[in-house]
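Budget justification note: compute hours in this period were largely spent on complex prediction jobs such as the one shown. Inputs:
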Amino acid sequence: MRPTEASTLLTDLYQLTMLQAYFDEEMNETAVFEFFVRKLPAGRNFFVAGGLEQALDFLSDLRFDPDELEWLSSCGRFKPEFVASLAGLRFTGAIDAMPEGTVFFPDEPILRVVAPMREAQLVETRMVNLLQYQTLVASKAARVRLAAPGKLLVDFGLRRTHGAEAGLLAARASYLAGLDGTSNVLAGMRWEVPLFGTMAHSYVQAHDRELVAFERFAYSHPRSTTLLIDTYDTEAAAQDLLPLARRLARAGIAIKAVRLDSGDLAAHAHQVRAILDAGGEFGIRIFASGNLDEYQLAGLVAGGAPIDGFGVGTRMSTSADHPYFDCAYKLQEYAGIARRKRSEGKATWPGRKQVFRRFDDAGQIAADTLTLASESPAGAPLLARVMDRGQRLAPSPPLVKVREYASQQLASLPPSLRSLDTAAPYRVEVAPALIELARQVDEREH
Amino acid sequence: MRPTEASTLLTDLYQLTMLQAYFDEEMNETAVFEFFVRKLPAGRNFFVAGGLEQALDFLSDLRFDPDELEWLSSCGRFKPEFVASLAGLRFTGAIDAMPEGTVFFPDEPILRVVAPMREAQLVETRMVNLLQYQTLVASKAARVRLAAPGKLLVDFGLRRTHGAEAGLLAARASYLAGLDGTSNVLAGMRWEVPLFGTMAHSYVQAHDRELVAFERFAYSHPRSTTLLIDTYDTEAAAQDLLPLARRLARAGIAIKAVRLDSGDLAAHAHQVRAILDAGGEFGIRIFASGNLDEYQLAGLVAGGAPIDGFGVGTRMSTSADHPYFDCAYKLQEYAGIARRKRSEGKATWPGRKQVFRRFDDAGQIAADTLTLASESPAGAPLLARVMDRGQRLAPSPPLVKVREYASQQLASLPPSLRSLDTAAPYRVEVAPALIELARQVDEREH
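Corresponding output:
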């Protein structure tokens, strides 16, 4: 059985029913679909593009395997000659996209598919699934990064993400957007995301004495000793570890940090810092975790809590305040003719589009223009061809390079957009040529 | 490369650092961990247990593969003799659990692991990841089911779920909790979840005339013709399809339903119903979708909107109002000694526990008692042994049987808990024996 993430049947049934209709109609002209987000939810001033890498992997590997074809044949919904036609199906189209890490805004396409209709339609469900989630997490993680400049920030979200792939991709997307690492071992193995983590409460509990747990752990991990000190009484544990720290120092082992995971983190951090400093342990850092998000981080930083780093988990990896974006993958052209839907509240801009971005003298972004790909207004175009005839045009950049680019993107935001507060919307102009095309499309009868 | 969902390295680094410490200490006595949810979020009156099936699969297949061991050896964090010890690691423990579909409440363990410490610790991250997500979706989907009795309800969430596994498991969990089917083809293939779905707006747009799209689709799918009628003008489309319906009828094809996907669904449904009825098409059903959740369903049902079925997607599959539960997998006993953490706001009940449920004369649930597994108060015990020495004790029930059981569970809820409004909390009593054990545990010095 194919793994879930690789199955071509991980799709909506209607993709296949439409494909059969197109097969019957012999319709397979070139289709143009674009992926975009319709609007910013409250508490987001921008989006950060993520997921392109996995989307390109998906397109490169697109095929039905024999088990899947057999199931399609036997399920009673599809004609044998249609199922047979799927055996040779591959993605042969072109992709234009914004690089991962690019800051973008509502209605701006971040990816365009230009391919024979059946291929372009079939991939819709998984393309949305892949592009939305990393964009969602990267957009949230960017806020976490902006809330705590200079602090060590680590993704701790895996256990409460929605399944295996979410856990893995949340580590990737949050690192891409500026976190310093993750607890997720597989993300370390796959993409060299720096790994962090030491002990759970269960480790302390399993030992009859907390101090014995601390000492044994230090000897087992002499170069990465972070001790979790809130299992029973945070301040008592901090006090008790002072003689241990001196004993370990004689053995050449330095306690790197203590971790707080419950209660009033600011209050505990102040008390623990005072205890450690009074004991001469100025070098032991304080790391905190527990239901954190960008707002709590900003509060702790603003209040001067002596915390050196944070583990940020569930609320970032599920984008808990807004766990989805109102995003879509829409047909904008078929057989050379621009198209759009006009459904109430869901009308789209027709045709192949490009986003041109202008910067001010300080290098900050000033305004975007959404227009036809064939136009050339002022500014730098954001979408570029990354795949042609089903082949990638260049190897994927290492994740650390994507992260550098995302960091530059965040630095190019004006302060109002970088703030956690909801800002006045960034200016995205719709060019006259695009408005005119929409008018022409709407004039056609259907 | 192993698929994400099967990788033993899809875990938190601290599981492995703790394992190395246990290896160094030669600590591997029997550990008892329990998984539970700490509290009900606003807008939830109960939980529905999900994910046991996948959790047991995970435990049955637990092993490190050669690539993973090689990476662990080379990453510079672990001792060779420790990594070598992982090669033979398998799950050899016992599992007690509530059946999937069981209704449960805060602090009640739904699953207990009894296993050598290293195995029981290693599996924490993925066990939480698997148990939380399906429980989250099943608990939300149960509310969706209760909000619209008798209506056809279909999961449409795949594209905006968080990755591949979430998409697949959301289809499973929502069907388990009472939905009638899904658009997710892979869920149909894997578990025979009934499949639904016909056409997208793109299909209508790709044809120059909407009616041509409708007619061609009907001929391609004569037994499952549902037409999406909101691409341009909903009521105009309903009017236009009347002559088409008569033409198709002469060819032996019945239009089963029309789908509305935008605007004021109740208003459109009333108008479309009137148009269809005036045209004598009483048999064509109305199906609606678009950003629905249990509250909107309840409103549409209460308002008497003539809608026969609903596609419910993003908000259900991401559990959008509460996209995570405050759940935990905690050590409650090690080497025969009951234990608990006392961290502020996060203290747990120690020892191996059982939940006993009492029913009233009408067969509705009346109260639960949380107590030690060794006690026998009034009521029926909810956890039962499902795995021993790493082997399942029985084959898994077919999903349709789990769904029947969940339906009975929902029927056993008193009306206040079945309501969408937040109810007075269900009574979960903590037995004196458990309170006494906690007192004794707290008296020990650490």
